[in-house]
Amino acid sequence: MASYCCGPLPGRPSVPLLLLLLRVSLAQKAAPVSMSAATSLSGYFGTKSRYEEVNPYLLQDPLSLGPPDHRLLLPSAACTPLQLRALIRHGTRFPTEKQIRKLSQLHRLLQSQERPCPVAQQLARWDMWYQPDMDGRLAPKGRLDMEQLARRLAARFPGLLAPQRRFAFASSSKHRCVESSAAFRKGLQLALHGQPSARDMENEETEINDKLMRFFDHCEKFVTRVEKNTTAMYQVDAFKQGPEMKRVLEKIAATLCVPVRDLNADLVQTAFFTCSFELAIKNVNSPWCSLFSEDDAKVLEYLNDLKQYWKRGYGYEINSRSSCILFQDIFKHLEKAIAESKSSMPISSPVILQFGHAETLQPLLVLMGFFKDKEPLTANNYKKQLHRKFRSGHIVPYASNLIFVLYHCDQAKGPEEEYQVQILLNEKLLPFPHSGKTVSLYTDLKNHYKDILQNCHFSEECELSKTNNTSTDEL
């Protein structure tokens, strides 16, 4: 799996955007966060969550490896790591153009208010600094996310992420992913050589591979039956009209002194996510955060998780089956590394680093059976699901990472125990669904997922039936 470039990188930011990036960078250095409304809500931002929410010790030391976990096979005299495969979500990003348009709409509504209303007036005076051309680009904090992750992984796996090792880089074609790859490479250079490379990190070779990193775009059944099907998000739409969201909507309308009819669930969620963006990007406690209590945040988190569940999770089978192409590619490289090891050959791809999206990682984790609740998430079981396993902010925050590590163990009792695998999610060991243990014999892992490896064929899974049926899959 060679690292190569398949075409020019997306265009660089415009001059006005570069000036805004500088403003953000300065704000980061000048505005530390205190205990505030933002931090009391920060555990409920779902896919817009900071990486530090899943590893709080990084707030004190961004290069800390956290509490020691002796279950990790490395370092070990008996087991040597052969291969590391990391699937990494891009770092902290700016809002998309669609999100910025909604925020502008809400901001204009508050600016047009004629009634005296302290909260609305404060938000009307807020500097609407987001610009449409930011459109989901990697923020300066996102570059730091990647650089620091690279340095931590190099410290955690020094035998694999080492000088003279071969690294294969691949990325989604999205600008934020390509830039995340470059920033990670810069951090790796710092970790391994103590200084940045003399070469322009933006122009380092990275394979653009949307077939693996954006498999969902290439799955016709998913696109037709889920992505573009207006009925597929029935549970999400029903929750927006339900009693929990109605209570939040009425409270926010009263706080802003606007008629409830002027607001909707999407605008309220936009205000909530603005709080999250300001915290993640600028490290500030935004005035938008003051609109929400922790109870409000739980409701809005559930709304976001419902969308993730039905669009990228267990809601429809095609959500996860579309990722079988990526899953099989992981095992193909594990198999190749084992074959090379058995033949006493050098491992051709010891480190594979791939940069994608929350939508890349989440379906893959679902395919493997992680974070599955006994009951599906629906519009009418909010209270029953308060302690659910499927919480997207705990699974795929910004810079989330899923790492497969293959080991060769010399003191194994037999050939079947010679090769073992561990999986880390966000730098923490993840127990396997089939055993509850944090290490698995490769043969056991391969046998557990035998059906997916043998029978999940991307072209067949994603082919739309001849009848023009847009109904969704059964649960």
UniProtKB/TrEMBL annotation:
It catalyses: 1D-myo-inositol 1,2,3,5,6-pentakisphosphate + H2O = 1D-myo-inositol 1,2,3,6-tetrakisphosphate + phosphate; 1D-myo-inositol 2,3-bisphosphate + H2O = 1D-myo-inositol 2-phosphate + phosphate; 1D-myo-inositol 1,4,5,6-tetrakisphosphate + H2O = 1D-myo-inositol 1,4,5-trisphosphate + phosphate; 1D-myo-inositol 1,2,6-trisphosphate + H2O = 1D-myo-inositol 1,2-bisphosphate + phosphate. Its EC number is 3.1.3.62, 3.1.3.80. This is Multiple inositol polyphosphate phosphatase 1. One of its GO terms (molecular function) is inositol phosphate phosphatase activity. Pfam families: His_Phos_2 (PF00328). Belongs to the histidine acid phosphatase family. MINPP1 subfamily. It is an enzyme of class 3 (hydrolase). The lineage of its organism: Eukaryota, Metazoa, Chordata, Craniata, Vertebrata. The keyword Hydrolase applies. Disulfide bonds join C79-C409, C275-C289. The keyword Cell membrane applies. Its main location: membrane. InterPro entries: His_Pase_clade-2, His_PPase_superfam, Histidine_acid_Pase_euk. Residues 1-27 form the signal peptide.
